[in-house]
Amino acid sequence: MPNNLNQYASVNGVRYSYDADGNLLTDGTRILGWDVRNRLIQVTKEGKTIAYNYDHNDLRVEKEVDGNKVRYYYEGSLLLCEKDGAGKVQKVYINDGEGIIGMVRYIYNKNGIFSHHQRLYYLYDSLGSVSVITNELGFPVQQYTYSPYGSTMNVEYDPVNNLRFVGRYGGYKDDDTGLTYFWHRWYDEEDGRWGSRDPLKEISLGKLLCKNRQLFFNSKDLINFYSYVDTVGKLNCKNIYSYTNNRPSFFIDRNGLTPECPQCPSPQWQPMPTITTITAPSLTPRRPSPLFVCDNLNDDIYKDCYKKCMDVAGIICGLGGFTAGVLTGPETGIVGGFIAGGGVDALCLILANSTCKQTCTKATK
Protein backbone atom coordinates (compact mmCIF):
# COMPACT_ATOMS: atom_id res chain seq x y z
CA MET A 1 0.00 0.00 0.00
CA PRO A 2 1.53 3.36 -1.02
CA ASN A 3 1.86 6.35 1.29
CA ASN A 4 1.22 9.99 0.32
CA LEU A 5 4.56 10.10 -1.56
CA ASN A 6 3.54 7.07 -3.66
CA GLN A 7 6.11 4.96 -1.82
CA TYR A 8 5.11 1.43 -0.89
CA ALA A 9 4.68 1.60 2.88
CA SER A 10 3.99 -2.14 3.05
CA VAL A 11 3.46 -5.09 0.71
CA ASN A 12 1.62 -8.20 1.92
CA GLY A 13 2.15 -7.05 5.49
CA VAL A 14 5.88 -6.41 5.05
CA ARG A 15 7.00 -2.90 5.99
CA TYR A 16 9.12 -0.85 3.57
CA SER A 17 11.38 2.00 4.66
CA TYR A 18 13.06 4.88 2.82
CA ASP A 19 15.76 7.46 3.44
CA ALA A 20 15.25 11.22 3.29
CA ASP A 21 15.92 11.25 -0.47
CA GLY A 22 13.25 8.65 -1.17
CA ASN A 23 15.61 5.72 -1.74
CA LEU A 24 14.35 2.31 -0.65
CA LEU A 25 16.20 1.06 2.45
CA THR A 26 14.40 -2.15 3.42
CA ASP A 27 11.72 -4.29 1.81
CA GLY A 28 11.62 -7.39 3.99
CA THR A 29 14.23 -9.34 2.00
CA ARG A 30 16.93 -6.73 1.29
CA ILE A 31 18.79 -3.95 3.06
CA LEU A 32 19.92 -1.32 0.57
CA GLY A 33 22.55 1.41 0.83
CA TRP A 34 22.89 4.51 -1.34
CA ASP A 35 25.55 7.16 -1.95
CA VAL A 36 25.06 10.94 -1.98
CA ARG A 37 24.14 10.80 -5.69
CA ASN A 38 21.32 8.34 -4.95
CA ARG A 39 23.14 5.42 -6.58
CA LEU A 40 22.74 1.94 -5.16
CA ILE A 41 26.10 0.94 -3.69
CA GLN A 42 25.28 -1.96 -1.38
CA VAL A 43 22.65 -4.65 -0.94
CA THR A 44 22.50 -7.20 1.85
CA LYS A 45 20.32 -10.22 1.13
CA GLU A 46 20.21 -13.62 2.84
CA GLY A 47 23.45 -12.88 4.70
CA LYS A 48 25.31 -11.93 1.53
CA THR A 49 26.56 -8.39 0.84
CA ILE A 50 26.79 -7.11 -2.73
CA ALA A 51 28.65 -3.85 -3.43
CA TYR A 52 28.69 -1.67 -6.56
CA ASN A 53 30.94 1.07 -7.93
CA TYR A 54 30.07 3.59 -10.65
CA ASP A 55 31.89 5.91 -13.03
CA HIS A 56 31.33 9.65 -13.47
CA ASN A 57 28.47 8.93 -15.88
CA ASP A 58 26.59 6.78 -13.34
CA LEU A 59 27.39 3.57 -15.23
CA ARG A 60 27.97 0.61 -12.95
CA VAL A 61 31.57 -0.45 -13.52
CA GLU A 62 32.18 -2.94 -10.71
CA LYS A 63 30.38 -5.46 -8.55
CA GLU A 64 31.85 -7.30 -5.57
CA VAL A 65 30.41 -10.30 -3.72
CA ASP A 66 32.35 -12.11 -0.99
CA GLY A 67 35.63 -10.70 -2.31
CA ASN A 68 34.91 -11.73 -5.91
CA LYS A 69 34.79 -8.84 -8.37
CA VAL A 70 33.21 -8.37 -11.77
CA ARG A 71 34.16 -5.35 -13.85
CA TYR A 72 31.97 -3.96 -16.63
CA TYR A 73 33.21 -2.15 -19.75
CA TYR A 74 31.14 0.02 -22.05
CA GLU A 75 31.13 1.83 -25.37
CA GLY A 76 29.00 4.84 -24.62
CA SER A 77 26.22 3.24 -22.58
CA LEU A 78 26.32 -0.13 -24.40
CA LEU A 79 27.78 -2.99 -22.39
CA LEU A 80 30.81 -4.47 -24.19
CA CYS A 81 32.33 -7.06 -21.86
CA GLU A 82 32.81 -8.35 -18.34
CA LYS A 83 36.07 -9.28 -16.62
CA ASP A 84 36.80 -10.86 -13.27
CA GLY A 85 38.97 -9.32 -10.56
CA ALA A 86 42.11 -10.80 -12.12
CA GLY A 87 41.37 -9.16 -15.46
CA LYS A 88 40.26 -12.32 -17.26
CA VAL A 89 37.52 -11.82 -19.82
CA GLN A 90 34.32 -13.63 -18.82
CA LYS A 91 31.79 -12.38 -21.37
CA VAL A 92 31.92 -10.30 -24.55
CA TYR A 93 28.64 -8.85 -25.82
CA ILE A 94 27.78 -8.49 -29.51
CA ASN A 95 26.16 -5.13 -30.25
CA ASP A 96 24.48 -3.88 -33.41
CA GLY A 97 24.60 -0.21 -32.40
CA GLU A 98 21.07 -0.19 -31.00
CA GLY A 99 21.47 -2.95 -28.47
CA ILE A 100 22.85 -6.38 -27.67
CA ILE A 101 22.18 -9.33 -29.98
CA GLY A 102 24.53 -11.99 -28.63
CA MET A 103 27.23 -13.00 -26.19
CA VAL A 104 30.52 -14.91 -26.23
CA ARG A 105 31.36 -16.71 -22.99
CA TYR A 106 34.98 -17.46 -22.11
CA ILE A 107 35.26 -20.87 -20.43
CA TYR A 108 38.23 -21.65 -18.15
CA ASN A 109 39.33 -24.97 -16.66
CA LYS A 110 39.69 -25.60 -12.92
CA ASN A 111 43.25 -24.22 -13.01
CA GLY A 112 42.05 -20.93 -14.47
CA ILE A 113 43.45 -21.66 -17.93
CA PHE A 114 41.34 -20.63 -20.91
CA SER A 115 39.59 -23.62 -22.48
CA HIS A 116 37.10 -22.53 -25.15
CA HIS A 117 34.41 -20.06 -26.24
CA GLN A 118 30.65 -20.47 -26.21
CA ARG A 119 28.68 -18.28 -28.62
CA LEU A 120 25.09 -17.49 -27.71
CA TYR A 121 22.51 -15.45 -29.61
CA TYR A 122 19.38 -13.70 -28.36
CA LEU A 123 15.86 -13.74 -29.78
CA TYR A 124 13.61 -11.00 -28.44
CA ASP A 125 9.97 -10.12 -28.04
CA SER A 126 8.53 -6.77 -29.13
CA LEU A 127 9.82 -5.01 -26.01
CA GLY A 128 13.38 -6.22 -26.39
CA SER A 129 13.13 -8.83 -23.64
CA VAL A 130 15.07 -12.02 -24.33
CA SER A 131 12.62 -14.81 -25.13
CA VAL A 132 15.02 -17.47 -26.43
CA ILE A 133 18.79 -18.02 -26.36
CA THR A 134 20.28 -20.17 -29.12
CA ASN A 135 23.73 -21.63 -29.64
CA GLU A 136 25.75 -20.91 -32.77
CA LEU A 137 23.95 -23.73 -34.60
CA GLY A 138 20.61 -22.07 -33.91
CA PHE A 139 19.35 -24.62 -31.38
CA PRO A 140 17.51 -23.19 -28.35
CA VAL A 141 19.40 -23.59 -25.08
CA GLN A 142 17.24 -21.38 -22.84
CA GLN A 143 13.88 -19.65 -22.98
CA TYR A 144 12.06 -17.15 -20.78
CA THR A 145 8.47 -16.17 -20.17
CA TYR A 146 7.62 -12.95 -18.34
CA SER A 147 4.95 -11.36 -16.22
CA PRO A 148 3.70 -7.97 -17.49
CA TYR A 149 6.24 -6.16 -15.28
CA GLY A 150 9.17 -8.36 -16.23
CA SER A 151 9.48 -11.17 -13.70
CA THR A 152 10.67 -14.40 -15.31
CA MET A 153 7.97 -17.00 -14.79
CA ASN A 154 9.96 -20.12 -15.64
CA VAL A 155 13.54 -19.28 -14.55
CA GLU A 156 14.48 -18.20 -11.05
CA TYR A 157 18.25 -18.14 -11.41
CA ASP A 158 20.45 -18.24 -14.51
CA PRO A 159 24.22 -18.37 -13.90
CA VAL A 160 25.00 -17.93 -17.60
CA ASN A 161 22.85 -15.04 -18.79
CA ASN A 162 21.91 -11.78 -17.05
CA LEU A 163 20.14 -10.11 -19.98
CA ARG A 164 16.45 -10.91 -19.71
CA PHE A 165 13.74 -8.28 -19.23
CA VAL A 166 14.45 -5.56 -21.85
CA GLY A 167 17.85 -7.22 -22.17
CA ARG A 168 18.44 -6.02 -25.71
CA TYR A 169 18.42 -2.43 -24.48
CA GLY A 170 20.50 -2.93 -21.36
CA GLY A 171 18.27 -4.54 -18.74
CA TYR A 172 20.77 -6.50 -16.61
CA LYS A 173 19.34 -8.87 -13.98
CA ASP A 174 21.48 -9.32 -10.89
CA ASP A 175 20.42 -12.65 -9.42
CA ASP A 176 22.31 -11.93 -6.19
CA THR A 177 19.99 -9.03 -5.40
CA GLY A 178 16.95 -9.86 -7.55
CA LEU A 179 17.08 -6.37 -9.07
CA THR A 180 17.54 -5.31 -12.69
CA TYR A 181 19.98 -2.55 -13.58
CA PHE A 182 18.94 0.15 -16.08
CA TRP A 183 21.83 2.62 -16.07
CA HIS A 184 20.47 5.37 -13.80
CA ARG A 185 18.21 3.23 -11.62
CA TRP A 186 17.55 -0.26 -10.30
CA TYR A 187 14.22 -1.94 -10.96
CA ASP A 188 12.30 -4.57 -8.98
CA GLU A 189 10.11 -6.64 -11.33
CA GLU A 190 8.28 -8.25 -8.42
CA ASP A 191 6.93 -4.89 -7.27
CA GLY A 192 6.95 -3.32 -10.74
CA ARG A 193 8.73 -0.29 -9.24
CA TRP A 194 12.06 1.49 -9.13
CA GLY A 195 14.03 1.52 -5.90
CA SER A 196 14.69 5.26 -6.15
CA ARG A 197 12.98 8.37 -7.47
CA ASP A 198 13.18 9.49 -11.08
CA PRO A 199 16.28 11.76 -11.23
CA LEU A 200 14.76 13.95 -13.94
CA LYS A 201 11.73 14.72 -11.81
CA GLU A 202 14.00 15.78 -8.96
CA ILE A 203 15.51 18.66 -10.94
CA SER A 204 14.04 22.16 -11.11
CA LEU A 205 14.57 23.37 -14.68
CA GLY A 206 11.60 25.64 -15.19
CA LYS A 207 8.92 27.78 -13.64
CA LEU A 208 6.89 25.12 -11.87
CA LEU A 209 8.35 23.03 -9.06
CA CYS A 210 6.20 20.93 -6.78
CA LYS A 211 6.85 21.53 -3.11
CA ASN A 212 8.12 17.98 -2.58
CA ARG A 213 10.56 18.31 -5.51
CA GLN A 214 8.92 15.56 -7.52
CA LEU A 215 8.02 17.31 -10.78
CA PHE A 216 9.62 19.90 -13.00
CA PHE A 217 8.21 21.88 -15.89
CA ASN A 218 10.85 22.79 -18.44
CA SER A 219 9.47 25.14 -21.11
CA LYS A 220 12.20 24.18 -23.60
CA ASP A 221 12.17 20.40 -23.33
CA LEU A 222 9.03 18.58 -22.18
CA ILE A 223 9.80 15.29 -23.87
CA ASN A 224 9.07 13.46 -20.62
CA PHE A 225 5.97 15.49 -19.79
CA TYR A 226 3.51 12.73 -20.63
CA SER A 227 4.85 10.55 -17.83
CA TYR A 228 4.37 13.36 -15.28
CA VAL A 229 0.59 13.44 -15.47
CA ASP A 230 -2.08 10.98 -14.49
CA THR A 231 -4.92 9.63 -16.59
CA VAL A 232 -7.26 12.53 -15.82
CA GLY A 233 -4.78 15.24 -16.70
CA LYS A 234 -3.92 16.42 -13.21
CA LEU A 235 -0.38 17.25 -12.23
CA ASN A 236 1.19 14.10 -10.84
CA CYS A 237 3.98 15.04 -8.45
CA LYS A 238 4.15 11.55 -7.01
CA ASN A 239 4.60 9.26 -10.01
CA ILE A 240 8.33 8.87 -9.50
CA TYR A 241 8.67 5.17 -8.72
CA SER A 242 6.38 3.58 -11.32
CA TYR A 243 7.86 1.77 -14.32
CA THR A 244 6.80 3.48 -17.59
CA ASN A 245 3.87 5.09 -15.77
CA ASN A 246 2.40 1.59 -15.29
CA ARG A 247 2.24 0.87 -19.04
CA PRO A 248 4.73 -2.02 -19.41
CA SER A 249 2.94 -3.68 -22.35
CA PHE A 250 3.83 -0.85 -24.74
CA PHE A 251 6.69 1.06 -23.14
CA ILE A 252 10.18 0.34 -21.83
CA ASP A 253 12.68 2.45 -19.91
CA ARG A 254 16.19 1.51 -20.96
CA ASN A 255 17.99 4.14 -18.86
CA GLY A 256 15.76 4.64 -15.83
CA LEU A 257 14.78 8.11 -17.01
CA THR A 258 12.58 8.10 -20.11
CA PRO A 259 9.77 5.76 -21.26
CA GLU A 260 10.02 4.71 -24.91
CA CYS A 261 7.82 2.66 -27.24
CA PRO A 262 9.88 0.09 -29.18
CA GLN A 263 6.75 -1.07 -31.04
CA CYS A 264 6.08 2.40 -32.43
CA PRO A 265 7.68 3.56 -35.71
CA SER A 266 10.19 6.40 -35.37
CA PRO A 267 13.74 7.25 -36.47
CA GLN A 268 14.92 5.31 -33.39
CA TRP A 269 12.61 2.34 -33.70
CA GLN A 270 12.54 1.02 -37.27
CA PRO A 271 9.76 -1.51 -37.98
CA MET A 272 10.64 -4.81 -39.61
CA PRO A 273 10.13 -4.91 -43.42
CA THR A 274 6.77 -6.23 -44.58
CA ILE A 275 6.74 -9.55 -46.46
CA THR A 276 3.85 -10.04 -48.88
CA THR A 277 2.07 -13.37 -48.35
CA ILE A 278 -1.12 -15.01 -49.61
CA THR A 279 -3.39 -16.31 -46.87
CA ALA A 280 -6.75 -18.04 -46.81
CA PRO A 281 -9.79 -15.97 -45.78
CA SER A 282 -10.28 -15.82 -42.04
CA LEU A 283 -13.66 -16.23 -40.37
CA THR A 284 -12.53 -14.38 -37.24
CA PRO A 285 -11.41 -10.75 -37.00
CA ARG A 286 -7.67 -10.29 -37.12
CA ARG A 287 -5.87 -8.58 -34.31
CA PRO A 288 -4.48 -5.20 -35.45
CA SER A 289 -0.76 -5.16 -36.05
CA PRO A 290 1.45 -3.33 -33.51
CA LEU A 291 2.07 -0.65 -36.15
CA PHE A 292 -1.66 0.02 -36.51
CA VAL A 293 -2.22 -0.01 -32.77
CA CYS A 294 0.65 2.38 -32.18
CA ASP A 295 -0.56 4.76 -34.89
CA ASN A 296 -3.82 5.13 -32.98
CA LEU A 297 -2.00 5.14 -29.68
CA ASN A 298 0.30 7.92 -30.81
CA ASP A 299 -2.64 10.06 -31.92
CA ASP A 300 -4.32 9.65 -28.53
CA ILE A 301 -1.06 10.28 -26.70
CA TYR A 302 -0.48 13.48 -28.68
CA LYS A 303 -3.94 14.83 -27.88
CA ASP A 304 -3.69 13.95 -24.20
CA CYS A 305 -0.11 15.19 -23.97
CA TYR A 306 -1.00 18.53 -25.60
CA LYS A 307 -4.03 19.09 -23.41
CA LYS A 308 -2.15 18.29 -20.20
CA CYS A 309 0.84 20.33 -21.28
CA MET A 310 -1.35 23.38 -21.89
CA ASP A 311 -3.14 22.81 -18.58
CA VAL A 312 0.22 23.22 -16.88
CA ALA A 313 1.03 26.19 -19.10
CA GLY A 314 -2.21 27.82 -17.98
CA ILE A 315 -1.12 27.56 -14.36
CA ILE A 316 2.33 28.91 -15.12
CA CYS A 317 1.18 31.74 -17.37
CA GLY A 318 -1.54 32.96 -15.05
CA LEU A 319 -4.76 31.27 -16.17
CA GLY A 320 -5.25 29.39 -12.95
CA GLY A 321 -8.26 27.14 -13.35
CA PHE A 322 -8.68 27.49 -17.12
CA THR A 323 -8.15 24.25 -19.03
CA ALA A 324 -6.43 23.72 -22.33
CA GLY A 325 -9.80 23.18 -23.99
CA VAL A 326 -10.72 26.75 -23.07
CA LEU A 327 -7.26 28.11 -23.65
CA THR A 328 -6.66 27.07 -27.24
CA GLY A 329 -6.74 24.20 -29.72
CA PRO A 330 -3.73 22.28 -31.00
CA GLU A 331 -3.95 23.79 -34.45
CA THR A 332 -5.18 27.34 -33.84
CA GLY A 333 -2.66 28.84 -31.46
CA ILE A 334 -5.29 31.48 -30.57
CA VAL A 335 -4.55 33.00 -27.21
CA GLY A 336 -5.39 36.71 -27.64
CA GLY A 337 -9.02 36.34 -26.54
CA PHE A 338 -7.90 35.44 -23.04
CA ILE A 339 -5.27 38.10 -22.47
CA ALA A 340 -7.79 40.37 -20.78
CA GLY A 341 -8.89 37.59 -18.47
CA GLY A 342 -6.73 38.72 -15.60
CA GLY A 343 -2.98 39.09 -15.79
CA VAL A 344 -2.29 36.39 -18.36
CA ASP A 345 1.20 36.48 -19.86
CA ALA A 346 0.44 36.40 -23.60
CA LEU A 347 4.03 35.76 -24.65
CA CYS A 348 4.21 32.93 -22.15
CA LEU A 349 1.13 31.29 -23.68
CA ILE A 350 2.41 31.69 -27.22
CA LEU A 351 5.72 30.09 -26.30
CA ALA A 352 3.98 27.36 -24.33
CA ASN A 353 1.65 26.58 -27.25
CA SER A 354 4.59 26.17 -29.62
CA THR A 355 6.63 24.21 -27.09
CA CYS A 356 3.77 21.84 -26.25
CA LYS A 357 3.19 21.06 -29.92
CA GLN A 358 6.86 20.35 -30.56
CA THR A 359 7.30 18.36 -27.38
CA CYS A 360 4.21 16.19 -27.81
CA THR A 361 5.15 15.55 -31.42
CA LYS A 362 8.56 14.32 -30.21
CA ALA A 363 6.93 12.20 -27.54
CA THR A 364 4.82 10.31 -30.11
CA LYS A 365 7.55 9.72 -32.69
Number of strands: 21
Q: Quote the average pLDDT.
A: 75
**Class computed from helices, strands and strand pairing:** alpha+beta
Residue runs with pLDDT of under 50 for 5 or more positions = 204-238, 267-297, 320-344
Q: What this model shows, in words?
A:
This protein has helices at residues 290-317, 324-327, 346-363; strands at 10-11, 14-15, 17-18, 24-26, 30-34, 40-45, 48-54, 60-65, 68-75, 78-84, 89-95, 100-108, 114-124, 130-135, 140-143, 172-174, 179-182, 185-188, 193-194, 208-209, 216-217. It is α+β, with helices and mostly antiparallel strands. Strands 5-6-7-8-9-10-11-12-13-14-15 form an eleven-stranded antiparallel beta sheet, with no helix packed on it. A four-stranded antiparallel beta sheet has the order 16-17-18-19, with no helix packed on it. Strands 1-2 form a two-stranded antiparallel ribbon. β13 and β14 form a beta hairpin. The radius of gyration is 23 Å and the shape is globular.
